[in-house]
């Protein structure tokens, strides 16, 4: 119905009443005219009040009763309302069908899904979440998730605001099950807790770590013995034939290379071990940076101009031995792979909201497609050059593990022909200001 037509009808009725009352007033007097007008308006008002009560009663009953039969404008109003109700029912049916399909799909997903409201109370979860967390569909809906998963590490993760990375934990209902969980914020302060059973993966990783650690440990002793005998032979230069001396020198170099490789493998195994908890204390970073600078000068042996720029006196909370190992690898890599005569700059300074230790070189640079893989074990941009410099291929992997344990990150920037910059950046939560 056209809106203008809807409003014209009562206006026409009022106009007719007015004309009729005026006519009666002309022939029967003012009182008679007013009486006719009041009577007409009362009848007209009573008509609308009646159908308003009919509409109210019908709306209170919901859609269980048929649409009332009316006349005039009210018939069209009831028809329009009935049409809106039919459209609403169709929309609801489609929405319920979509929700039903989503719920069936979520029930079939092997990963656990727990929907949390803004108060971290459980709104919904699928069967996989029941297996992972021991949840009960009848009693646990509406409960605070922290009451049902009583692990301090999980409470710390839940109360934090950094959900970029998954969190590995033991299942609260089975100590033999290892879960990888991640919180995904969505909507209006709502969260979705996603869990995945990584028990088999963790078992394989544990076997790999144990194998590497055991093999590396077993290799250390024979390498030490062989290296000791070779050093003894090299001290007998006047006795040994010249050719044999060269062979012993070559064997001693390769033995030392293998020893460094074994030490790096053992360092990686220690960093990856879940039993190796991070022992933290305040670290005098200006002093540590100065030590790294002296190491760079010693390793370079005058082949490079090396500069130190320290714009911060702030310290860090962490493990000094691990940071010396991780940051030291950034320094040694720069010295090894930068051509002689090219400058190397070590810097300790703030970069936006992070405190960073940077190693800038003026070497050949690294092509962009290599950068994402530089922290992989044994990945080499130039294998022949790496062997010549004596690198093990594990330095950046060690640095990345150390930074991860300190909630830091490794930033790599490089341009071919202009050099590279490796930065170890630490969050504000790790900084101790002086």
Largest sheet: 5 strands, antiparallel
CATH topology of the largest domain: Heat Shock Protein 90
The helix content is 40-55%
Structural class: alpha+beta
Q: Count of DSSP E strands?
A: 13
Tell me the name of the CATH homologous superfamily of the largest domain. Histidine kinase-like ATPase, C-terminal domain
- Summed over residues and divided by their number, the pLDDT gives a mean of 82
Low-confidence sequence ranges: none
Counting DSSP H or I runs of 4 or more residues, the number of helices is: 12
Task: Describe the protein in words.
The protein is of the alpha+beta class and 434 residues long. The protein has 4 domains: 3-103, no CATH class; 109-197, Beta-Lactamase (2-Layer Sandwich); 203-272; 281-432, Heat Shock Protein 90 (2-Layer Sandwich), CATH 3.30.565.10. Helix content is 53%, strand content 18%. The chain has 12 helices and 13 strands. The protein has helices spanning 3-28, 30-61, 73-108, 127-133, 145-148, 152-159, 199-234, 242-272, 285-300, 320-337, 383-389, 395-405; strands at residues 112-116, 122-125, 167-171, 174-186, 190-197, 281-283, 306-310, 315-318, 344-351, 354-361, 409-415, 419-426, 431-432. It has a 5-stranded antiparallel β-sheet, with helices on both faces. It has a 5-stranded mixed β-sheet with strand order 7-9-10-12-11, covered by helices on one side. It has a 3-stranded antiparallel β-sheet with strand order 6-8-13. α8 (242-272) packs parallel to α12 (395-405) and α9 runs parallel beside α10 (320-337). The chain is elongated, with a radius of gyration of 40 Å. The two termini are 76 Å apart. The mean pLDDT is 82.
């Amino acid at each position: 119905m056209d809106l203008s037509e809807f409003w014209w009808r009562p206006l026409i009725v009022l106009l007719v009443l007015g004309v009729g009352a005026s006519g009666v007033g002309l022939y029967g007097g003012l009182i008679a005219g007013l009486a006719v007008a009041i009577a007409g308006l009362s009848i007209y008002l009573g008509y609308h009040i009646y159908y308003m009560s009919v509409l109210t009663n019908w709306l209170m009953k919901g859609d269980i009763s048929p649409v009332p039969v009316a006349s005039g404008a009210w018939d069209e109003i009831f028809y329009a309302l009935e049409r809106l109700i039919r459209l609403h029912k169709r929309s609801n049916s489609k929405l319920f069908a979509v929700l039903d399909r989503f719920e069936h799909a979520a029930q079939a997903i092997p990963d656990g899904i727990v929907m949390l409201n803004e108060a971290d109370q459980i709104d919904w979860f699928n069967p996989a979440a029941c297996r992972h967390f021991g949840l009960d569909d009848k009693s646990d809906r509406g409960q605070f998730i922290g009451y049902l998963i009583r692990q301090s590490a999980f409470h710390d993760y839940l109360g934090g605001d950094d959900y970029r990375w998954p969190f590995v934990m033991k299942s609260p209902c089975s100590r033999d099950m290892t879960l990888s969980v991640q919180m995904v914020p969505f909507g209006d302060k709502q969260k979705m807790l996603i869990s995945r059973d990584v028990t088999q993966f963790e078992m394989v990783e544990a076997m790999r770590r144990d194998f590497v650690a055991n093999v590396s440990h077993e290799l250390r002793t024979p390498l030490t013995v062989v290296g000791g005998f070779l050093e003894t032979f090299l001290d007998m230069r006047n006795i040994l034939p010249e050719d044999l001396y060269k062979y012993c020198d070559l064997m001693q170099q390769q033995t030392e290379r293998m020893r460094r490789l074994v030490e790096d493998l053992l360092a990686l195994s220690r960093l990856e071990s879940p039993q190796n908890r991070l022992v933290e204390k305040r670290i005098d970073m200006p002093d540590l940076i100065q030590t790294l600078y002296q190491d760079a000068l010693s390793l370079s042996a005058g082949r490079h101009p090396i500069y130190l720029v320290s714009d911060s006196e702030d310290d860090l909370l962490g493990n000094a031995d691990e940071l010396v190992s991780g940051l030291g690898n950034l320094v040694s890599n720069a010295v090894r792979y930068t051509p002689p005569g090219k400058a190397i700059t070590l810097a300790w300074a703030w970069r936006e909201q992070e405190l960073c230790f940077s190693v800038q070189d003026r070497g050949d640079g690294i092509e962009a497609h290599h950068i994402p893989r530089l922290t992989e074990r044994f990945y080499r941009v130039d294998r022949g050059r790496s062997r010549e410099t004596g690198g093990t291929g594990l330095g950046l992997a060690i640095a990345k593990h150390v930074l991860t344990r300190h909630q830091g990150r490794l930033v790599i920037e490089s341009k071919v022909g202009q050099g590279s910059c490796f930065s170890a950046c630490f969050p504000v939560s790790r900084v101790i200001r002086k």
